[in-house]
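Aim 2, interim progress. The first record below pairs a target sequence with its structure tokens.
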Amino acid sequence: MIMLEKMSAATTTAESIRLPGNLDCHPDEGILLAAIRVLRASGYGHVRKLRCEVTAGVITLLGVVPSYFLKQVAQEAVLRLDDIQEVKNLVEVRRPEVELFED
């Protein structure tokens, strides 16, 4: 069973996915599932939490990471997938909030 949220006829995004044994789906959905698998397999927690959308073979990466290194790790991971036309890396880089302790 695949749980997908359709954003429009040509755009697909996913929050939670259960993969079936036999998958017949729209090509963008197959790319989306592969991208999610690659991101979730990362050894970096922030990369595993990123979201992605696929429209006509173009993967858009979304979310926040604490370094440009992790932004690049995510991009390189999905660039290796078959059948993608382009990667739009819209991941934001923000320094983690540091709490100051008062005495």
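The second target in this work package is listed in the same format:
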Amino acid sequence: MILRLSTSDLQVVAGVLNNSVGSSEGTKLVREVTEIYVHEEFNEGILINDIAILKVGIIFKYEK
């Protein structure tokens, strides 16, 4: 569960990602997670409000 994870256990991956063999790695961006904000009414037993916000250390810059 997310409550048992630390920021060092997580990364955020964005961009075009193709997991097939031989795909280009140059189209994805990876950021380290610096903070985890779990919904204050999260209930692990019944998975109510099972959402969190992950803060990254370096922003993602969108370019066309």
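The longest strand covers residues 28-38. This observation will shape the mutagenesis plan for the next reporting period.
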